[in-house]
Amino acid sequence: MSRRNAPSNPPPDARAPRVAIANRQRIHRLDLRRIRHLVARALSLCLAEHGPLPQRLADLPEVTATIVSPGVMSRVHVDFLGLDGPTDVITFPYGEILVCAAIAAENAARYGHTLDDELALYIIHGLLHLNGFDDLESTPARRMRARQAKILNTARKSVTVPGIA
Q1: Measuring CA to CA, how many Å separate 113 from each of 67, 110, 129, 149?
Q2: Mean pLDDT across the stretch 73-79?
Q3: How is the chain split into domains, by residue range?
């Protein structure tokens, strides 16, 4: 088959930043491949959602999501937000997202998700923050949770990589 007639994949969204995901904790076993595929599928869906605050996601060349321990998350939580203890996700406007594996493991068990899906959900949450969503008040928080759950469910259905369910 000539190169001209070869099947092609659709081009990626030109506005989409590259999303790099790193695991910097050692307690929980993760399937980074699955998390990366879910987030890659979710990225265009996040870009299509527009919150009321400034939307930075499309302007970023890269977003870095780092999976960390509760100790690291606690230090960042205190240093940047003045709050004690770990939290699930912290998003910085320049495109850094930190997610806590230990909290994800607790919530995954509580809500019947896999750890990998819960971590992907937290990264999706961070991407929505970067696209103008906020969750400081109850009504916007409910809307944001509904959007991120819908995006994760859609991403799960579209993951077609062998070995990725």
Answers
A1: 17, 8, 22, 11
A2: 97
A3: 16-158
* CATH number attached to the domain at 16-158: 3.40.390.30
145 contacts: CB under 8 Å, gap ≥ 6: 135
Q: Measured between alpha carbons, how far is 11 from 82 in angstroms, rounded to an integer?
A: 42
Tell how strand 89-92 and strand 96-100 pair up. antiparallel
| Mean pLDDT within 113-123 | 97
Instruction: Please name the residue that has the structure tokens 């819960």.
Output: 118
DSSP lists the bridge partners of residue 23 as: 67
Structure tokens at 96: 């850094």
* Residue-level pLDDT at 11: 40
Residue 67 bridge partners (DSSP):
23, 99
Q: Are strands 96-100 and 18-23 parallel, antiparallel or unpaired?
A: unpaired
pTM over 0.70: yes
Q: What are the phi and psi torsion angles at 36 (to 5°)?
A: -60, -40
> Coil, strand or helix: which one is 61?
coil
